[in-house]
Amino acid sequence: MEAEKEKEKEMREWCVALPKVELHAHLNGSVRDSTLLELAKQLGDKGDIVFEDVKDVIMKNGRSLPECFRLFELYHILTTDHDTVTRITKEVVEDFAMENVVYLEIRTTPKNNEAKGMTKRSYMNAVIKGLKTVEAVEVVLFDSNSRADKTPMSELGGDTRKKKIYVRLLLSIDRRETTLAALDTVNLAMEMKDQGVIGIDLSGNPVVGEWETYLPALEHAKELGIPITIHCGEVANRNEIRAVLDFCPQRLGHVCCLNDEEWKKLKSLMIPVEICLTSNVMTGGAPSLELHHFADLYNAKHPLSLCTDDSGLFSTSLSNEYYLVASTFGLSKAELFQLAQDAVEFVFAGDELKRSLRELFERVGKELTT
C-alpha cells in the first residue's frame, strides 16, 4: 500500500514537472475557488446574490452537474465587472504557469453589458490588462512576428528564474448570440490580433441555438484567415455534428456523442481534438474515465491534446489530466511526454513560437523520460 502511494505521488509530481500546452481553457471556469468565495461574499453583502445559496457549492469538491450550472450563473454575474475580469485573468495565468503550462490559449466570450458600461472591446481590454499585471511569472503576449517570440524559453523544473508562459486569446461566440453579435466578435478578433487574439471559438449551452445562426460569422472568420475551434458533439445533435465536420475547423472540442459514421469521418479528416477527460465524465459526455473516447482516438493515432476545459469548476488541473491518462490507460512517461509535445503542432500561434516550444521540449525531454 505504501509503495503504491509513493508511486502515485512520484507520478503526480512528474506530471507537474512536465511542460504542457493548454488549448481548451475557459477563463471564467478557471477561477480559483478562494477567489470565487471572496467575490461571491462581496456580491452577497451588496445584496446582488444570496451568498448562503452558493457558499457550499463553491467549497465543495466533486460537484454534480446541476451544481456546476449554478456556478456558471455566478461566473456570469461576476464577469460583468472590469476589475474582476482583470483579477481573474491574472490569477488564472499564474495558476497555469505554476503547473508548468508553457503555452496557454484562454478562451472567453466578450461581454456586452450596457448597464455596467461594458462593451465587448472594454471586456477584452480588461482581460489584456490582467495579462499585463501578472508578476509571478513572465507572460509573453504578442503576435507571432514579435521579437519576444524568438527569445529562448527559460528552463523549467528547479530553475529559480521566473517561469515563462506564452499566452494567446480565443474569442468565443456564445450559442445564445445572434448572427450579428457573432459577427461583431469575429471582427473584434481581427481588430485585436496584434494584442494576442489569435482565434475564434464556438461554445455555450449545447442545447441552445441553431448552427445556421453562427455559420455566417464562422465563414467570415475563415475568409479572414482566423483559426477556428468548435465545441462539437457535447450532445447527440446529428445534423449539427455533421455540419461541423463538413465545415472542417482547425480544431474540435470534446467530440463526445458521435456515431460510428461520424467517428469515421472525424478520423479521416484528422482534425485535432481537445480532450477534456474530467469535464466529459462530470457532464455525462463520457460514461466513465475507463470508457472515455480518449483511448479510441489515441490508439487510432488521431491528433489530440489533453485540456482542462474549466479547471476551477471541475476541480482539476492539466497536470491532473495527464495523471488520469497515465493511471487509467497505462501510458508511460515517454508516451505522456510525446502527448504533451505533440500538442505544440496544434497551437494557433505562428511558426516562430512553435519552434520555440519544440526547442523547449527537446531540451527537457531526455531529463524527464529517463
TrEMBL record:
InterPro entries listed in its UniProt record: A_deaminase_dom (IPR001365), Ado/ade_deaminase (IPR006330), Metal_Hydrolase (IPR032466)
Pfam families membership: A_deaminase
Single annotated GO MF: adenosine deaminase activity
Reaction catalysed by this enzyme: N(6)-methyl-AMP + H2O + H(+) = IMP + methylamine
Cofactor(s) it depends on: Zn(2+)
This protein's UniProt keywords: Hydrolase, Metal-binding, Nucleotide metabolism, Zinc
Domain of life assignment: Eukaryota
Family: Belongs to the metallo-dependent hydrolases superfamily. Adenosine and AMP deaminases family.
The name this protein goes by in its record: Adenosine deaminase domain-containing protein
